[in-house]
Amino acid sequence: MGVSTLVPAVDPRSRSATETVRVTTRRDFLKTVAVIAGGVLLQPHRTSAMTHDDKVWFMPDEGDPHKRTWMTFGASEEVWGSKLLPEVQRNLATIALTIAKYEPVSMLVREEDYATARTLMGKAVDLISCPLDDLWMRDIGPVFVITEARKKACIDFNFNGWGEKQDFDRDVKVAGFVAKTCGVERIRTNLVLEGGGIEVDGQGTAIIAESCVLNSNRNPGVGKAACEAELTRLLGLEKIIWLPGIQGKDITDGHTDFYARFARPEVVVAGYDPDPKSFDHAVTTRHLEILRAATDAEGRSLKVVVLEAPSDVRKEYASEGFAAGYINFYVCNGAVIAPQFGDAKADRAAKQKLRELFPEREIVQINIDGIAAGGGGIHCTTQQEPVA
Question: Domains, the chain, ranges and CATH?
Answer without folding.
Answer: 33-386 (3.75.10.10)
